[in-house]
Amino acid sequence: MARKRTLLLFLLPGVLLYGFLFLYPTAAGLFYSFTDWDGLSPSFRFVGLDNYATSLESLVFQKAVFNNVKFMLAVVIAQSALSLGLALLLARNSRSSTALRALYFFPAILSSVSVGLIWSFVYDPGIGMLNASLRAAGLESWTRNWIGSKDIAIYSIAFVQVWAHAGQMMIVFIAGLQSIPAELYESARIEGGNRLQIFRRITWPLLAPSATIVVAYTTIQSFKAFDLIFVMTDGGPNHATEILSTYIYHTAFASYRFGLASAGSMLFLAVLGLLTYAQFKALRADRASY
Amino acid sequence: MFNVRNALLAGTIALGAMLSACGSSGGDSSSGGKEVKISFLHWRGEDVEALNKIIEKFQQQNPGIKVDMQTLPSDQYQTAAAAKLTDGSAGDVFASFPGAQFEALSKAGQFADLTGADFLGRFNADLIQPGVKDGKQLAVPYQLVYNDPIYNVKLFDKYGLTPPKDWEGFLALCETLKQNGVIPIAFAGADIGPGQFMNTMVMNNEPSEDIFEKVEAGEAKLTDEWWVKTLSQIKELNDKGYFQPDALGTKDAAAGALFIQEKAAMLASGSYQLAQNAKQNPGLEQKLLAPITVAAGEAKYEGVHTSTFLLGVNSRSKHPDEARKFLDFLSGKEIASEYANATGQNVTVKDVEYSTPELKVATEWSTRKTLFQPRFTIKNADNQKAVTGSIQAVLGGSSPEEAASEAQAAVDQNLVK
């Protein structure tokens, strides 16, 4: 019994930190979501579910949810596919592969603010490198107002997100690929399996745990892609790149409606929780063992 | 025998100590209680050098007071300043933007009442009105800005152009510049452009000091003729190619560069940008020009002004007297002159002497009929965003009616709350 208590004690610092840094703020957020607190005043009123109703009715909130889904789909599909492709190409531990892995991983160590600033200049329609390069290559018709057009701005930022994090996810896939026993490939080849068959029957099913991590992490990351959007467009033009995290930020810190922002955060938490649960369920079904 | 309660207590104390160690160390650093340390919180990082010299003088005159200046980037000021002010960790004296931030801070009781303070008499009474709430002077706007586009005098002279008196004249001027290969207006559509340019564009379409207050009260609508006309005129400038291409994707720095490099003849910003432009291109000769959007005889206002950088004393300050003393010092004519000439910003203090050409350019406007910046009369930040968003919408291809209607729908949602 005493031993059990001692063991439980080892959990205490972690539990306290988790409680203080996560559970308490979440509970406080839930509490304030039922108030009209402005974030500054010492007093506030309880408003019941008004903030939830206001959020759900808000045109900007609806736009933010829609943009978030577009952004998430673009990032999850492109980043997972690209990082898997890179992992398949660079899984062998040759010298060139190691060098290229480091190169592709490099953007992940940059701060998102730096990445956002760099790409803001790259995308600038007047002085930006992208349009200038396209013009120099005779591709004038391909030039676009990359982050100024309401139709493509969200995808332009999604591209930057993929550029910055595909290398990071590639490492997860490489770890997964390297844990697949070589004998499985050998026996598949002896039995005459072609590359596609080997990928479909062996690689992909055994990569499911890695894919679960990549897809779940990328989904959460794309929902929380606050800094890139804040630096590059601040949710503009006219809310075309507003996502839930920027909506919450603007509501709390520009409009001083902390109660409403807290309700938005709770809805955000619920959406993320549901999505993550659904992904784990879906990808768990694909898992194989050996 | 192992005691769980004691262990819990020890763990909590240890955690508390760890978290305290991570916390910031704001507040009074004096140990003997003789020296009082006050914090001065603002967003003007570019003024730090000039203000450090002023603070040094203040400290020499007031040996018992030490001023600890903290600056935050202007775009983060809304966020971080509120937290610092409310927990009392900084900002015995602090700056606020007029409009939504001043409203929120004053509603929260963050400002100490300065009504009746002697130093208020040193300011231009009209220009410090934006710091008044419910009859109380809660803050003093220190800087004076004219939010009128800047123009390149030499380029205008080269093509024989003078500031036009009506809308037709403004369009003709833009056309002449365009025909001569000069971008008529550098417009930062991605960030500050809409919020700056809307002011002069709307000032004569609806020559009223409180039109946006009426919109927020539901007594006027953005779908009314005056705003739809404003949006139509901005769209017309864009559609005719009088802004640089893809203006909606252009940020402040890139638009500024077009003007500084003399590729653009006008810059849709304000007098606050004059000194910075001159620093980067000393050959520039600059003046201010407000587009007149109506017929010559119908124009009521010549331009737009803002008194900003509202300085106040934190109502939670432990040293309100020392904080007031610092405000008093800043409002002295000599100190205000020193600040203005070192930073290139006009001030609201009376009888200040300006020495640089850029400051004198703005001073010329002090005798003109100008309107307080309409954007800052919008008290709700969501509404402000809806208004500037409607400008971005027309630049992005929406019709003025559609854009106005979408913006009004957003304002309507805030009306009922």
Report on the structure:
The complex is a heterodimer of chains A (290) and B (417). Chain A has 290 residues and is mainly α. Chain A has a single domain, classed as MetI-like fold, CATH 1.10.3720. Chain A has 13 helices and no strands. In chain A, helix 3 packs parallel to helix 7. Chain A starts with a helix and ends in a 5-residue tail after the last helix. The mean pLDDT of chain A is 90. Chain B contains 16 helices and 13 strands. In chain B, strand 1, helix 2 and strand 2 form a beta-alpha-beta unit. Chain B starts with a helix and ends with a helix. In chain B, 50% of the residues are buried. The interface between A and B is large, with 45 and 51 residues. Chain A: It is found in: Cell membrane. Chain A: Keywords: Cell membrane, Membrane, Transmembrane, Transmembrane helix, Transport.
Task: State the share of residues found in helices of chain B, binned by percent.
Answer: 40-55%
- Greatest interface: A-B, 45 and 51 residues
Using the alpha-carbon principal axes, give the shape of chain A: globular
| Spans of at least 5 consecutive residues with low confidence of chain B | 1-32
CATH homologous superfamily descriptor of the largest domain in chain B? Periplasmic binding protein-like II
Round the Cα radius of gyration of chain B to an integer and report it: 24 Å
Structural class of chain A: mainly alpha
Question: Tally the helices of chain B: what do you get?
Answer: 16
Oligomer description: heterodimer
Give the second-level CATH assignment, the architecture of the largest domain in chain B: 3-Layer(aba) Sandwich
CATH class of chain A: Mainly Alpha
